[in-house]
Amino acid sequence: MLTSFYKMHGLGNDFVILDERTGDLSLTPARIAALAHRRRGIGCDQLVTLRAPAAEGADVFVRFFNPDGSEAGACGNASRCVADLVWRLSGNATPVLQTLAGLLPTHRTPDGLVTVDMGAPRTGWEDVPLARAVDTLHLPLPGDPAAASMGNPHATFFVSDFAMLAQGHALEHDPLFPQRANIGFARMDTPEHMRLKVHERGAGVTEACGSGACAAVVNAVRRGLAARTCTVELDGGTLHITWSEQTNHVLMTGSATMAFEGTVDLAAYPS
Ligand SMILES: N[C@H](CCC[C@H](N)C(=O)O)C(=O)O
Fold first, then answer.
1. What is the mean pLDDT of each run of 10 residues along the chain (271 residues)?
2. Which residues hold substrate (predicted)?
């Protein structure tokens, strides 16, 4: 039996989106990893599922899975893509996404971009989470990173070049991060412009990371390095991030792209 899927990306951070609102697809970690495989599967940075919402006021319940089968509480680029997909399918231009990180209101901008309210950052050590009580603004790691969660763990290193990117895998698995972490490397060109590269937890280096951009701006503002409205330039393109002083929420604006639709025979994948 063939199952439809949508292939979308946010600045080159790419996703396979499967709709489980018509029935469970038995997406075990093994099947997710096989579907995400760049040669033997469809291939993606994250696999995204849609389900009927449980929360009051939500239009769709969205879950995000890495190519290693692990689940992520947040995924900014995929959130923009799901908002765009809901609009394409239903005409609703302001869907509210229910995620493990909470309810994320979204809207389209006049120039066809998508804004997601990614909610408030979590900066307590137990919220990131970290393995012990340390100052999340200056972690006890070489390179003196800061840490914050957007519903998933992020560490941000402030760098002048990106040589440290090669240490991303080891840092992802540092014992200070009991749930591992996404590792961002941020170069502040001005307080309003950041160049960012991210080694993602469970996925490796991606062309863009939306929640990583949000966390990096939050950490930069906390360090006094960035303005609350900051343009983040990633390998795959630009995101506009604002950490609102009034609401304490982080707004992320950027593109969402439909690459293609397809069908897949899930019976050909491990259960
Ligand atoms: N690409 C996603 C981040 C995925 C995070 C995932 N790697 C995790 O385990 O937290 C984004 O645009 O926010």
1. 96 98 93 98 98 96 98 98 98 98 97 98 98 98 98 98 98 98 98 98 98 98 98 98 98 98 96 87
2. 13, 46, 66, 76-77, 152, 182, 200-201, 210-211
Catalytic residues: 75, 209
2-116+256-268: CATH topology is Diaminopimelate Epimerase; Chain A, domain 1 (3.10.310)
The C-alpha atoms of residue 107 and residue 161 are separated, in whole angstroms, by 35
Question: 202: Cβ below 6 Å to ligand 1?
Answer: yes
Calpha distance 108→87 (Å, rounded): 9
Counting beta carbons within 10 angstroms of the beta carbon of residue 29, is it exposed (0 to 12), middle (13 to 18) or buried (19 or more)?
middle
Q: Is 218 helix (H, G, I), strand (E, B) or coil?
A: helix
**CB contact at 8 A, 259 and 9:** yes
Distance 108 CA to ligand 1 centre (A): 22
CATH architecture of 146-248: Roll (3.10)
Residue with the two structure tokens 């993602």: 200
79 lines ligand 1 (CB under 6 A): no
